[in-house]
Design brief:
This protein is α/β, with parallel strands linked by helices. 47% of the residues lie in helices and 13% in strands. The chain folds into three domains: 140 residues, no CATH class; 116 residues, Rossmann fold, CATH 3.40.50.720; 185 residues, no CATH class. Strand 3 and strand 4 form a beta hairpin. Helix 1 runs antiparallel to helix 5.
């Protein structure tokens, strides 16, 4: 029944796409020649020439959209992925259309019509797809258009998958039950109460309805649409046996690898020539993200230097007047990918302040601070020279605060995932700092906030952190 429903919705979407494409073509013709927005110098070509072209347009777009997989089920895929696919498919289709019209030498088609048509199809089809998907999501929340799913496995991974499915009713997946390896052997991570025997027992309220050997029979009896194989690492040898049992069944098969516990930063799946590659940790700084973040840093640096130049000179003068020693203080820190660099700050302590103590944390009422040093630290103005670290490329405006290598060596031995903060370029300000986790505060909480920032990085997130910094400054600064 579900297959028929899926085909029905696919046909509706296909026909709707064709209508949108057709209207976009006619609208592009109208805007070019009749709207008065653009000058018409060579006269208005007859409408019938453009009308006849609608047949090859619909054939081209229909074929390309099918080829690009735009009618495959997308219950989980984000909207941006689909919009990007539409962009690629429309671009490819327009190029084909322009090539086809080359053979109609007796007619001269307006390039502005093609350009307007390309833009309108991308926008209109994207909006139409979003509207269509939202209708389907609404129906699924109401219990329609569901996919009945069987989960092979009862361990932590299987339970986690089911919890995530239940948090998203809009995807329309209903789990009808679990399968376990043995009838009377509950797992240590999820004890069955009572123990499973012949269909009894449940995990998180969902019944264990059989063993792996029963999978074919249960698929036929329960009208299953999809099987999710979520076995623990210890049971991975059984995956091949399960796939042999259901390989010829008309169900969708999903395999969830038990690698979630090893995934840290931005884990996911890539593809190399059709071969899936599981990424356990990665950095958000790749491709255009590097360009965007670096461009933003340079623009912000220019603005900041222009606005703060008088203050910069005033602080330099006060440091020189009130204490003996250089204006700037240089210190080795650790940044992106664990590389060391020299960071700059306004000097706030006496010269050779660590000569007797060695590297230590700054503390409140520190006797080593100069007269103006206390004020600079309280207001964080001592960090201003780090704008030049941003210009050099050692640091970014926003990112995890860089730490001294001597402390890094200590922390990485005792704090799990500490070194992952170096997957992002160090920053003058950061998510940890605007939330109060700096100075002599919990390193664990600081790492938690730093990793959250890396996982969720975006340009808008950077702007939010900068605005929070300007509004309330850093906390716990001394």
């Amino acid at each position: 029944m579900l297959k028929k429903h899926a085909k029905f919705f696919e046909n509706i979407l296909f026909l709707t796409d064709l209508v949108v494409i057709e209207l976009s073509w006619f609208l592009a013709y109208y805007l070019r020649f009749y709207s008065g927005l653009l000058p018409v110098e060579k006269g208005i070509p007859p409408f019938r020439i453009y009308f006849y072209l609608i047949i090859p347009i619909l054939l081209i777009w229909g074929f390309v959209f099918k080829s690009f997989g735009l009618y495959r089920p997308k219950r989980i895929a984000p909207y941006l992925n689909e919009i990007f696919d539409i962009l690629k498919a429309c671009t490819f289709s327009v190029l084909i259309l322009v090539s086809v019209t080359f053979f109609f030498r007796q007619y001269e088609f307006s390039r502005l019509v093609f350009l307007g048509f390309w833009v309108m199809t991308i926008i209109a089809l994207s909006l139409e797809r979003i509207f269509f998907r939202e209708i389907l999501r609404f129906l699924r929340r109401k219990g329609y258009n569901l996919r009945y799913t069987l989960v092979a496995g009862i361990g932590k991974l299987a339970q986690d998958i089911v919890k995530r499915i239940e948090l998203h009713p809009e995807i329309g997946v209903k789990v009808i039950g679990f399968l376990s390896q043995h009838e009377n052997t509950p797992t240590s991570t999820s004890p069955l109460s009572p123990p499973y025997k012949g269909g009894e027992g449940a995990v998180n309220g969902i019944s264990v309805i059989g063993t792996y050997k029963d999978i074919r029979k249960i698929i036929e009896e329960k009208d299953v649409d999809q099987v999710i194989i979520a076995l623990s690492m210890e049971e991975h040898a059984l995956i091949l046996e399960l796939l042999k049992d259901i390989g010829d069944e008309m169900v969708d098969i999903k395999v969830i690898p038990d690698l979630c516990e090893f995934m840290t930063l931005r884990g996911g799946i890539d593809e190399l020539d059709g071969l899936p590659i599981i990424s356990l940790q990665d950095t958000p700084l790749y491709g255009w993200n590097i360009v965007i973040k670096r461009t933003f840093d340079i623009i912000f640096f220019i603005i900041a230097i222009i606005l703060t130049a008088p203050l910069f000179l005033l602080i330099s003068l006060l440091i020189k007047i009130t204490s003996i020693g250089p204006i700037f203080y240089k210190q080795e820190r650790m940044g992106l990918d664990g590389k060391k660099f020299i960071t700059y700050k306004f000097r706030t302590m006496m010269v050779n302040a660590e000569e007797n103590t060695g590297p230590v944390w700054a503390k409140e009422n520190d006797e080593r601070k100069t007269t103006i040093g206390t004020f600079l630290r309280r207001t964080n103005l001592d960090e201003m020279p780090q704008f030049f670290n941003v210009l050099k490329g050692d640091m970014s405006i926003v990112g995890p605060r860089p730490e001294r290598p001597v402390f890094v060596e200590q922390f990485k031995k005792s704090i799990p995932q500490y070194m992952l903060r170096h997957k992002m370029k160090a920053g003058i300000t950061g998510w940890s700092q605007v939330n109060g986790w700096r100075g002599n505060t919990s390193i664990e909480k600081r790492i938690e906030y730093d990793l959250y920032y890396i996982e969720n990085w975006s340009l808008m997130f950077d702007i939010k952190i900068i605005l929070m910094t300007l509004w309330k400054g850093f906390k716990n600064a001394y």
